[in-house]
Amino acid sequence: MAHEVELQTAGNMWKVMVKPGDTVAAGDTLFIMEVMKMEVPHEAPADGVVRAVNIHEGDEGLDAGFIAVVID
């Protein structure tokens, strides 16, 4: 079952820490957003392998609900 990691709020992408093919464990930080001058980490919801990364460092104006990472 695939796990889709959605952006919880609008903001800019500060750092992407995974790429397709990476193995992650639940709780690993996948990426860090900049939201109103604060760094907001997003974590893996489950163990698995990263199938897709739909974000890039420096992306601006991302909207809440956007599927950032897909984990199988």
Structure, explained:
There is one protein chain. Helices cover 0% and strands 49% of the residues. It has 72 residues and is mainly beta. It has one domain: OB fold (Dihydrolipoamide Acetyltransferase, E2P). The protein has a four-stranded antiparallel sheet with strand order 1-7-6-3, with no helix packed on it. The protein is globular.
SSE string, helices as H and strands as E: EEEEEEE
| Unreliable sequence segments | none
CATH topology: OB fold (Dihydrolipoamide Acetyltransferase, E2P)
Number of E strands: 7
What share of residues are in beta strands?
over 45%
Spatial separation of the terminal alpha carbons: 6 Å
CATH superfamily: RNA polymerase II/Efflux pump adaptor protein, barrel-sandwich hybrid domain
- What's the helical proportion of residues? under 10%
Rg from Cα: 11 Å
Total domain modules: 1
Helix/sheet category: mainly beta
Number of helices: 0
Provide key terms for this protein.
single chain, 72 residues, mainly beta, OB fold (Dihydrolipoamide Acetyltransferase, E2P), 4-stranded antiparallel beta sheet, 3-stranded antiparallel beta sheet, 0% helix, 49% strand, globular
Topology:
Elements: E1 3-6, E2 12-16, E3 23-24, E4 29-35, E5 38-43, E6 48-53, E7 67-71
Antiparallel strand pairs: 1-7, 2-4, 3-6, 4-5, 6-7
